[in-house]
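Hi U.,

Before I forget, here's the chain from the pilot set. I'm dumping it here mostly so it's searchable later in email.
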Amino acid sequence: MNILVFKTNVSHERKIMELTPILDSMDGVIDWNFDLHDCDNILRVVAIATLPDQIENQLLQAGYYCEELE
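Structure:
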C-alpha cells in the first residue's frame, strides 16, 4: 500500500462532496481524506498501487489544482 500526499486548492466541504464520487470510483484507491486546516489543503490517498498522475488528472479535469508532494 502507498500513502500519497497532494497539495490542492480544495477549500470547502462542499467541494469535497463534489469530488467524493470521483475519488471513490478510482481503481486502486482504498481510502482518502482532505485536511482543510492545512495551508496546502492536503489530500491524502491510501492506494494499493502508485496512482499520482491519475489522481492529479482526475482533480484537474474536475477543475481543481492538485500536485503530489515529495
